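Quick start: read one record
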Amino acid sequence: MTKFLGIDFAPLAVPFHRRMETLAAIHFVFAMVIMSSLTVVLTLYLLFTSYYWLALLYLTWLAIDRRTPSRGGRRATWFRNLDTWKHLANYFPIKLFKTSALDPTNNYIFAYHPHGILGIGSYAHFGTEGTNFSELFPGIKPYLLIMKIMLSLPIVHDYYMLPGCCDVSKDSIHYILEENGKGNAAIILVGGAKESLESTPGKCKVLIKKRKGFCKMALKHGAHLVPVYSFGEEELYTQVDNPEGSTVRNIQNYLQKWMGFAIPFFHGRGIFNYNFGLLPHRRAINTFVGSPIPVEKVPEPTDEQVNALHDLYMQKLKDLFDEYKVQFEDYAEKELIYI
């Protein structure tokens, strides 16, 4: 590492595998942060050129295919098994740990915490085979549920379905858990994009107190509920200080109300420096998939039943956190904070 004008520059001579890992991280950030805006701009631009027919042709396809993200998507095994995802997992590194076997004759809802800035851990584990999900959980097919708007954008619509992403809607969850056989796992980032505003290094905050929809869905479909916690997800980026009531948070809350999703103001590292940029820092993520909570099917669950399952889930998540945090020095003395 070379320091110049207060900037820590990455060394030029690094092993080839680290270059491949950095390329994989660049690929991920481009796909998750840049591609959505770029494809919208490109589509609008083509509409005012002699190639307008290309844009119209694709928009027609988008309209025809609009229900696919809520009907199980269109996953591609070859995409999930690309070497790129092994390099991405090794970049941090990201590791997935099984604490209990899952019976493929059941369906599941995996509740993933925390969201982090970009949800990198959830994508690496459940949108790819970078951390060997299928080997750890044979017979279980994961469906990573993301915001519907992201699957409504040009190009992104098709790209995001390749790893098995579907929209996080009632129709989508119903299809995965009721009409698609057994051995399915709907992966829900319970805190959602709003929780990304709470993602701060050193803090273990989980937005869950009023998030009960995933428990209601588990009851309606008799899906066993699985707590999942990632140690390190909140350490990948530095977010602009944004406590409740601050100008920054007020702007973010306004943008969320206007656009429907939160926009964190953050920075990580760059390709050639360690101080600023959009790439995540190389910090370990260790994800533990907890034991499933058996759930009996209740087609029309009452508020009392939902609240009871929610309370039980929060206790099981805390137990999972407390049991495995001692393995990591930086977490041994930390407490899980529910907001």
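The two ends are 39 Å apart (CA to CA).
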